[in-house]
Amino acid sequence: MKKCSKKLKLNCVNISTKSLTSGDIELFNDNALLNQWIDERFSHGNNEDEIVSSSEYMEQLIERLGTKYIAWCGLYSYNEIRSQNSGFKNTYFFFVVDLETGKVMKFEVHNSIGKDHADTLNSFIYNSLMFVAKKSK
């Protein structure tokens, strides 16, 4: 993500629990708040008029991050062994949400097959971030 962001001249802040230390309390809280907000936002489906209960805290987060948009991505990998199309599979997802309005600006899902998927994943990430780079100009 960081390499692709750098190539596209995007400022990227990675909010993840993977590399947290005991002093990263604010980052941990931001991650928890975003997880809760996104979970509730998507539980409303396509209804962007619903108010998300933790929205009152978003103003502070927007101020801290310097943006009202958040991009969220993930990869789910699994080995499917009980079907006709068995083998190693990957599902990549990416979305951009406006934290002030709850509007989903971009949502995409891509699938790939095979264990050697680093180049494919990097191309998915780069293409996703191109959307962000175009919108930020």
Question: Overview of this structure, please?
Answer:
The protein has 137 residues and is α+β, with helices and mostly antiparallel strands. It has one domain (2-12, 21-135). It has helices at residues 2-7, 25-43, 58-65, 118-135, and strands at residues 69-80, 87-98, 104-113. Strands 1-2-3 form a three-stranded antiparallel sheet, covered by helices on one side. The radius of gyration is 17 Å and the shape is globular.
Structural class: alpha+beta
Report strand %: 15-25%
Between the first and last Cα atoms, what is the distance in angstroms? 20 Å
Q: Give the biggest beta sheet.
A: 3 strands, antiparallel
What is the share of helical residues? 25-40%
Low-pLDDT residue intervals, each spanning 5 or more residues: none
Mean pLDDT: 84
Could you give the topology of this structure?
Layout: H1 2-7, H2 25-43, H3 58-65, E1 69-80, E2 87-98, E3 104-113, H4 118-135
Antiparallel strand pairs: 1-2, 2-3
